[in-house]
Amino acid sequence: MKILMVLDKEFPPDERVEKEAITLVQAGHSVSIATYTLNGREPIENKDGYTIYRRKISRLMFKSSAAILLHPFYFLYWKRYLTSLFTQERYDAIHIHDLPLAKTGYYIAQKYKCKLVCDQHEFYSNWIVRTKHYTNLCGRLILRPFSYWKPYEKKYLKRADLVITVAEPLREIYINRVGISPDKIITVPNTPSFGNFNIDKVDSEIIERYSGRFVLFYAGGFDHLRGIDFILKALARLKNEIKEIVFLLAGKENRAFDLKSLIQEYHVKDVTELAGFVPIEKLSSYVAASNVCLFVPRADNLEINNTIVTKIYQYAAMGKPIIVSEAKKMKEFVESNQIGFSVPYGNIEELCRIIKEIHGNPGIADSVKLKAVNIARDNMWEITSKPLTESYLKLISQYYA
Predict the structure, then answer these.
(1) Residue 267: which residues within 8 A CB-CB, separation 6 or more?
(2) DSSP label at 122?
């Protein structure tokens, strides 16, 4: 099939989109990705067997995406953009990444008689209302009351030919609450690729850089939903008991989240290091250099309790002890496989106790490494992405029927 993927953000990087594109190309499909650029990146780029199309977007248009359901401007931008691509090229499927552009994808699918794939990286209607721009004063008064994400989600996902979700419990929620037909929705977990997360492929320079330190590690976005403040509070206590401790963070900071101010507030600047954005091919080396890997968000919503985020699989692939919050699926994963620990969000005493236990008992890390690497073999992209390629084979048969 000729597939046009649509991503309303700068690309690259987006590990999941890249993995899907490469996997589909390897399965014999032709893949293009439509994205935008704020900074004048190349309008057309060939990469790893697929083509990236970029169209310039203004700062004002970019910012308007936060209120996408309240006015038509952002939809119109994408409608014109995608129409121009379909005018130049005939595509058999339009593959929309995340919920916001599902409406535009449906319009294009109807107009050009192609298949519509809606790829849900998040349980969007549950996630968006907890973000900063929906919980600040403006968001509570204007955005949230008039942004009807649940009806939008139901309307357009039910019209898709294929819906992709990241976890089986979310698939069940979409079936039971949204009304998606079970034969039209699949689960493709966001697991790491063996090519990038392999204990035999690490940068010795990065390993050496943190030699002699006791490294707590977090990878991912920096925002108020990730539990980073919880770790910083524990770090303020631990730095007096573990002299060689350092909290290493790799990722991008959300504009609405002031991490540096929190670091100052908790007096942990001397034991905190920000690595910034780390390319996926280097991320495994930072995990390998760490002693404990963490993800401890609040467990107060459907999505966080029914998913296992990709960083958990990444940590496991490198055989590291993992500490999670009480979020249901992640807690079950690390505890049942005996590769980590669960701490209720906000319980600083318990988080400190577990970290000190791992620090004082090297046998814990040795035991976790043996179990985690074995478990990771069954949770690599090369295995878990099979439903993606199988579903596209079904779409081919439907398309040419």
Answers:
(1) 236
(2) S
With a CB cutoff of 8 Å and minimum separation 6, the contacts of 1 are 29, 30, 92, 93, 115, 392, 395, 396, 399
Q: What is the rounded distance in angstroms from the CA atom of residue 11 to the CA atom of residue 204?
A: 29
| Residue 354 near residue 325 (C-beta atoms within 8 A) | no
**Cα–Cα distance between 237 and 347 in angstroms, integer?**
13
How far the first Cα of the chain sits from its last, in Å, is 14
* Cα 367 to Cα 124, 287, 361, distances in angstroms: 37, 17, 11
How many other C-beta atoms can be found within 10 angstroms of the C-beta atom of residue 323?
Answer: 23
Alpha helices in 239-294 (DSSP H): 259-265, 280-288
Cβ(247)–Cβ(273) below 8 Å? yes
Tokens 């990730």 sit on residue: 226
Main-chain phi, psi angles of 2, to 5 degrees:
-95, 120
The residues, ordered by sequence, that sit 6+ positions from 389 with a Cβ below 8 Å of its Cβ are 23, 24, 27
Burial of 401: CB neighbours in 10 Å, binned 0-12, 13-18, 19+ = exposed
Query: How far apart are alpha carbons 272 and 118 in whole angstroms?
Result: 39
pTM of the predicted protein model: 0.88
Is pLDDT larger for residue 130 or for residue 393? 393
260-274, 333-347, 363-377: which has the minimum mean pLDDT?
363-377
Which sign does the torsion angle of CA 41, 46, 52, 53 carry?
positive
**234-289 pLDDT, tens per residue?**
999 999 999 999 999 998 877 667 888 889 999 999 999 999 899 888 999 999 99
pLDDT digits (tens, 9 = 90+) for 142-187: 555 546 788 889 999 999 999 999 999 999 999 998 999 999 999 9
Mean pLDDT of 116-120: 97
- How far is 254 from 225, CA to CA, in rounded Å? 11
Residues 6+ apart with CB under 8 A from 347: none
